[in-house]
Amino acid sequence: MATSFDAWHFARHDLAQRYIDAFQAGLSSARALFARRRMGKTEFLLKDLLPQSEQAGFTCVYVNLWECRTAPLAGIAEAVAQQLAARRNPLARLVGKGPQVRGVKLTVLGAGVDARLDDPDADPTLAQVWQRIDAHGHPILLMIDEAQVLASAEHLGVASALRGGLDVRKDKVKVIFTGSSEHTLRGMFGKSSQPFYNWAPVEPFPLLDNLFVSHMVQRANAILRPELALPDERAQQAFITLKSSPEVFRRFLDAYLLNPFAGVEVAVERARESTFSDDGFAAIWDSLLPMDRLVLQFVAAGRKGITGKPALREFGAALGIGVAQLHAVNNSLARLMDLKRQILVNVERGEYQFEDLHFQEWVLLEHPPA
Ligand SMILES: Nc1ncnc2c1ncn2[C@@H]1O[C@H](COP(=O)(O)OP(=O)(O)O)[C@@H](O)[C@H]1O
Ligand SMILES: [Mg+2]
Q: Cross-referenced InterPro entries, in alphabetical order (predicted)?
């Protein structure tokens, strides 16, 4: 493509400003935003909210917890160290090493951090994080992408220590959490047993709409010969067909620009195929147990009552074992909802959904339920 990647970014100034205004007004100090995968959350954080809030006087720290899901605390610490140090704050360079750490840890504890930190063997990492933050001279916007990682049981300690430190720094540190599962985020912020209980309002991330599509079409048409121009209406339809995902829509545009003669339908098909293969859906499928596949087919078909008698009988028949056991289905659901894989999410009691609509589509196409 002749233009650079950034030229294709559809800026969302107003949306970014809304969050910044709310933080600056002091009404809220945290928010949790959810939208399915590939809907533009990360791009919004990095390309809209980050530069705009820096202009508004915040120093931003972005961390994608999915990328450090085995050690989220280390990931956060590294992001804080890197991104705050980058501001050439003279104090920030002085802190973080050496014997001060212990003393600082005591101050942090005094400020009410979860008692888990009281462990003499506790990792000093978090103390360093607070130290760097406290030494930094500007308000901070902490962007925690893929925040659902903190909802897993193994990271409960990290989550509560983090919350404790953030609690006492609400004026200085504003936090945006994002995640792709509404259910998980609601659990994380809505269950009284969770460290972040009531800590941030959970709301949908506003999705890209027809304005985004028109913007992209204009860009594309600027480099296409007039007789091959992509009609806005066809592009809007393609966007809907591709489940309103900006990512898959851009693949569609790529395909169209590469070969406009083939037409819109072919480009839509290419976009789908490339999404399916890039995401390795076939490899995921191959790695699944037979019961997991049956469960996915059931959910993909939009059926309800997965733990009911008829479903158990059906699964049993497919596996050639009479009637399937309830616990086998429950185990399978647990595997598929595991935060490390996140194939399914639990939307309501007994109701499940694909986390990625494109995987659902792939299952229906490639492995339609019998
Ligand atoms: N505002 C935008 N303008 C142009 N393309 C976008 C925009 N937002 C998202 N995209 C495209 O969609 C892709 C996926 O977006 P991303 O932010 O990674 O989704 P999410 O974080 O919700 O999974 C991006 O890599 C980009 O190609
Ligand atoms: Mg993302």
A: P-loop_NTPase
